[in-house]
Structure formats: structure tokens, C-alpha cells
Amino acid sequence: MKVFQCNSCDYQSISNKYVCPKCLKGKLEELEVPSTGTVYSFTDIHVAPSEFADIAPYTVALVQLDEAKGKVTVRVNEPVQIGDKVELENVEKGAYLYKKI
After folding, report:
1. What sign does the dihedral 35-36-38-39 (CA atoms) show?
2. What is the predicted pLDDT for the residue at 13?
3. Where on the tree of life does the source sit, at the highest rank (predicted)?
4. How far apart, in whole angstroms, are the C-alpha atoms of residue 55 and residue 77?
5. Are the C-beta atoms of 73 and 58 separated by less than 8 Å?
6. Exposed, middle or buried, 65 (CB in 10 Å: 0-12/13-18/19+)?
7. Element (H, E) at 34
8. How far apart are CA 8 and CA 19, in angstroms?
């Protein structure tokens, strides 16, 4: 998995930006990080937007990536709890799909 880190401060993001939104002077450089992490928070979606209605109910989790400062929002296809270890299983329609390990 790739994240982008500012070359002037400690800011990290999963999306690239022209200039660092934190320090406003650094440029974001691509950094490879493990595709594993820990569930930081989660919620179960029962009433989904129309484009995701066919997969409801589903779980959305905020995952603290291992060896990275950033967190990523992911979909998990099984029940999770805060503190569970997860890893990237697939990317589907731009969404990160994680599974428990």
C-alpha cells in the first residue's frame, strides 16, 4: 500500500496533493507501507447510499496502518472490534477491502 508523506513535516495521506496541507510548503512523496493495520474505530452500515445498497449491511472501519502515521477508511466483510489486526484483501471500485488476520 502506498501513502504520501510530506518532505518538510510529519503529515501523511493516502491521497496525493500538490502541496502539504499542514505546513503549506512541503511536497508529498510516495512511501510504501505494509497493508496491515489495527482497527481504530468502526461502524456497521445498515441503510446504505444507493450505490452500496446491494451490499448492505456492511462494516466500515478506520484502520491505523502498521509502520505509518496515517489511518485509512476501509470496508471489512466480517465483524470486527477495536484492536483487531486486519490486512488488505482486495481493492474493489476504489474501495479498500480488508479482512481480519
Report:
1. positive
2. 85
3. Bacteria
4. 10
5. no
6. buried
7. none
8. 10
Is residue 14 scored above 90 in pLDDT?
Answer: no
Domains of the chain: 1-32 (no CATH), 35-100 (2.40.50)
Mean predicted lDDT score pLDDT of the chain:
90
Report how far residue 91's alpha carbon sits from residue 20's, in angstroms, rounded to the nearest whole number: 26
Instruction: List C-alpha distances in Å: 41 to 14, 47, 62, 97.
Output: 18, 19, 5, 15
Statement: the pTM of the whole predicted model exceeds 0.85: no
Q: End-to-end distance of the chain based on CA atoms, in angstroms? A: 17
C-beta of residue 80 within 8 angstroms of C-beta of residue 61:
yes
The C-alpha cell at 25 is 510548503
Q: Which single residue is written with the C-alpha cell 495521506? A: 13
pLDDT tens for residues 42-87?
Answer: 999 999 899 888 889 999 999 999 988 778 889 998 999 999 999 9
Whether 53 contacts 43, CB under 8 Å: no
For residues 88 and 66, give the distance between their C-alpha atoms in angstroms, rounded to a whole number.
12
